[in-house]
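for ur thesis appendix - tRNA (guanine-N(7)-)-methyltransferase. copy paste whatever u need, i formatted it the way the template wanted (i think)
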Amino acid sequence: MQDEQNTSAPDIKKRAIRSFVVRGGRMTEGQQKAYDANWAVYGLEVPNGRIVYEEVFGRQSDVVIEVGFGMGASLVEMAKNAPEKDFIGIEVHPPGVAKLMMLAAEAGINNIRVYCHDAIEVMADALPQGEAATFQLFFPDPWHKKKHNKRRIVQPVFAQQVRNILKTDGVFHMATDWEPYAEHMMEVMEAQDNYENVAGKGHYHPRPDWRPLTKFEQRGERLGHGVWDLIYKKI
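the 3d part is after this line
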């Protein structure tokens, strides 16, 4: 991730920024079957070009984008609990994509779609500009070592790419359980002159009720670990 601010999608692509580090992505036979069975319903493809939300979901709605949803349980729960909204998940890990689609099918919900692709390219090439109501980034890789901090996804250039796909007054919601990363997020976002901290300058936001607690987060709470939410509005 580059430190300099740049809102140009072509320049972003030219630098070959990636929002992830490839890990084991081999699916089990069951996951592959779930993937194959559900992709036609829930899957979106970057090569098909920029989507139109109303065409994808068959209605006008507030659209929520989430990057890095893991195994998908929290995102499916949010979609189930907010049927008036539509959700698009972006995840590069195929087993997680397979699991999310399976959970969505089991829950019988149709207000969710998914890209199995790098988020940077999805945002640059496939999502409408200036239309999403919310962008969610929950518990991204904190890259603990100082020499790896530059690999953190939350950087000025990323903040501006998120801004590009948000509508005016749309929000960028982040959460992390690593305090140094929370501080890094705060530093990056407070420096952007086209975002406003919903909780007030320099303040973290209480966890909203609609963000489900993950099992990992619940375990962390029992152990006394903190979680920091940051919510910034596009202005």
